[in-house]
């Protein structure tokens, strides 16, 4: 009997436990050809928006954000006066992520989560971060550079 168990795991620990927390997707397990090893994504600014005011500061609440569907960009304001711009296109399969709530942007398609202050992937199935776009604030306007 004991011979049959050899090489099949640890006695008293089930297969699921051996495999880890099944059903909990994590990010950052980079697959070959799926982006930078640090999980970051390369920013490709959508054509036609460089240098344009794409949102007003007042449209972006502190701790929240605004998704601009036309260009699939999400603007966040993680802390007062600090604005960030990310692609709203989920790196998993391209659905548009939702506006941030409690510092997290969630993709409605398969549940990936991203940090509103960095775009970092917090929960898979996405394997990488949302690409960040450089921006500047001029007066009341937020401009993609
Ligand atoms: Fe976003 Fe799948 S497309 S999690």
TrEMBL record:
Top-level division of the source organism's lineage: Bacteria
Residues in Rieske domain copies: 52-144
Keywords: 2Fe-2S, Disulfide bond, Iron, Iron-sulfur, Metal-binding
Pfam short name (any one): Rieske
Coiled coil segments of this chain: none
SUPFAM superfamilies noted in UniProt: ISP domain
Protein name per UniProt: Rieske (2Fe-2S) protein
Organism: Nonomuraea mangrovi
């Amino acid at each position: 009997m004991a011979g049959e168990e050899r090489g099949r795991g640890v006695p008293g620990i089930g297969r699921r436990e051996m495999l880890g927390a099944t059903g909990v997707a994590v990010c950052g397990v980079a697959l070959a050809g799926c982006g930078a090893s640090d999980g970051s994504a390369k920013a490709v600014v959508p054509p036609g928006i460089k240098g344009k005011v794409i949102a007003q500061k007042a449209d972006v609440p502190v701790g929240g954000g605004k998704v601009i569907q036309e260009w699939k960009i999400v603007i966040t304001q993680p802390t007062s006066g600090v604005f960030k711009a990310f692609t709203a296109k989920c790196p998993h399969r391209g659905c548009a992520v939702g506006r941030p709530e409690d510092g997290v942007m969630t993709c409605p398609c398969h549940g990936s989560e991203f940090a509103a202050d960095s775009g970092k992937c917090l929960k898979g199935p996405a394997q990488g971060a949302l690409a960040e776009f450089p921006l500047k604030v001029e007066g009341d306007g937020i401009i993609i550079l």
